[in-house]
Amino acid sequence: MPDEACHPSPEPEPHTAEPSGYDAGGLVLVSTPIGNLGDMTFRGADALRSAELILCEDTRTTARLLTHYGITTRTAPLHEHNEDAAIPRLLARLQAGARLALVSDAGTPLVSDPGYRLVRAAIAAGVRVGALPGANAATMALVLSGLPPHPYLFMGFPPPRQAARHAAFARLRAAERAGLSATLVFYEAPHRLAESLADMAADFGDRPAAVARELTKRFEEVRRGGLAALAARYAAEPARGEITIVVGPPPEEAAGQDDLEALLVAALRTQSVREAAAGVAEATGLSRKHVYTRALALATRRQNE
Asked: Of 128, 67, 141, 138, whose CA–CA distance to 100 is shortest?
């Protein structure tokens, strides 16, 4: 047996003060903590120190993080209201060799946050774009939910108005009837939580779900249960803080006749009867012969109208 005392394991290399390769210039997307400031990575802090300018949603929010880590880099706001106007000026700086960092108020930049248009413009202009990983509320809620972790579909915030929300959920249900089976992840504002959960229960059925609140913070909480029960609970006890909703995938179900007709009508817009029937039969698990007969009847009816 080898003598471990004579052959100790090598010590891990300490992190360097260099911004992980971004000292040569370009745009780096830096993930920041979603609540607990201790979750900032060494590489992320180094990149912020070494940047010439930090672009952030709210300079006051980012200032608290920078003060905690003793970072004195200058900041400038980049949000949905000024992003388009700021892009030409920022691209000029990047093309001249500047090192710029982009952060959101919390978590991974661009994930339901500003910055996408700047990143697209930088890529199109041939500017170096990189990213440093870190905290993300969607993936943390997913792994804490107890629901199937993959595949999953991140949907961002549901529409704020109920009619638009029902329409968005109906599109998801149509995709599920066509074969999509994934755990769904949403962000939501606390004052809309109970209403959104009730709408999900109405549109998706009473599926298992989880509500993750204030992740990594002092009052972190994950509640699990059916959508209807969670909706009732938060209607009686309004939530506070940052909210992530995780909804389990649909149960296996056979398509009803109304669902089958809707799927075939959509498929027949761009496909032949044979192609539409084959695709819908595969998606629904129904008999190819049955689906083809139905598709042929629909196509004939459309021709006679």
From this structure: 128
**Domain 22-135 shares a fold with domain 138-247:** no
Three state DSSP letters for the chain: CCCCCCCCCCCCCCCCCCCCCHHHCEEEEECECCCCHHHCCHHHHHHHHHCCEEEECCHHHHHHHHHHCCCCCCEEECCCCCHHHHHHHHHHHHHCCCEEEECCCCECCCCCCCCHHHHHHHHHCCCCEEEECCCCHHHHHHHHHCCCCCCEEECCCCCCCHHHHHHHHHHHHHHHHCCCCCEEEEEECHHHHHHHHHHHHHHHCCCEEEEEECCCCCCCEEEEEEHHHHHHHHHHCCCCCCEEEEECCCCCCCCCHHHHHHHHHHHHCCCCHHHHHHHHHHHHCCCHHHHHHHHHHHHHHHHHC
pLDDT at 1: 46
Give the pLDDT confidence of 146-182 residue by residue, as tens digits: 999 999 999 999 999 999 999 999 889 888 877 889 9
Give the CATH number of domain 138-247.
3.30.950.10
pTM: 0.76
Say what the pLDDT of residue 83 is: 93
Architecture of 22-135 per CATH?
3-Layer(aba) Sandwich (3.40)
Label each residue of 221-285 as H, E or C: EEEEEEHHHHHHHHHHCCCCCCEEEEECCCCCCCCCHHHHHHHHHHHHCCCCHHHHHHHHHHHHC
Nearest to 134 by CA among 247, 203, 44: 44
16 confidence band (pLDDT: 50, 70, 90): very low
**Domain residue ranges of the chain, discontinuous segments joined by +:** 22-135, 138-247, 257-304
